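User: Please predict the structure of the protein below. I'd like the answer in structure-token form so I can feed it into my own downstream comparison script.

Assistant: Understood. Taking the following sequence of 283 residues as input:
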Amino acid sequence: MRYGAWAALLIGSLAHLGVIAATQQPQASTQEGVQPQGNANRSAAERAAATRTFLGLGATPDRAAAARGAPLFARICGFCHGQTARGATGPSLITSDRVLEDDHGEHLSVFLRKGSPDKGMPAFAAMEDKQLTDIAEFLHLQVEEVANRGTYQVLNIVVGNAAKGKIYVETRCMSCHNEKDFAHLASRVRSPEQLQRYWVWPARDGKITADVKTPDGTISGRLEGISDFRVTVVDAAGATRTIDRKPGIDVQIHDSLAAHQKLVKTLANGDMHDVTAYLETLK
């Protein structure tokens, strides 16, 4: 089978939400002072391959064949299934078992040639094998573009108002940051989309720490875990300390990204674009 069950479920969820991928994404900057997040510094091909492996996706679609299959699909199938196979008068094919169980048309070609007349699906017996294979590859590419986030491309995002972005920074960000933090920021990041990711959710500049106040004194260190019942820290000597959260125990957590955690919950789309437009001017 081409896809694992949970991968197929994920594909269905993304398709339902209307998530559509593009073709390529620039690499993240690794210049000094900028810490790329996760696998953002991988090439587009590496990210796509890693996502493919993680999701258990099947064979890589043949893009050249898919390009040939696109107009064929649009002409003979688009009325029912939509121009990109995401559904019209007929169902979406992104989550079709017949599509997901196929690799390079070995099953789909046979089905398309016979059709399913009892369900209103005509037979395409007169079509050449190559044409049917091209249609199959087109369908697989549509699944790929829904499922594989490693292939996403962010297009031009510098669409905000830089003046408004400057006001936002001055009123919302300077209580934690200073002018040095923003100096030449855009020149330290390779692209606007990386810049936007960097400021919305920057790399953590240190571990989360905690001060645990107990009747016998305060235990401070790197936070290893916390629940309603206990907290675990590693102190300066490297010892792991687990304290039950009983009455009289007060835990104060220090997280350099706490402000950003709050910000992303309330950040409006317009504000995000405005700030990015302003930061892009800081070369």
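That's the full token string. The mean pLDDT is 80.
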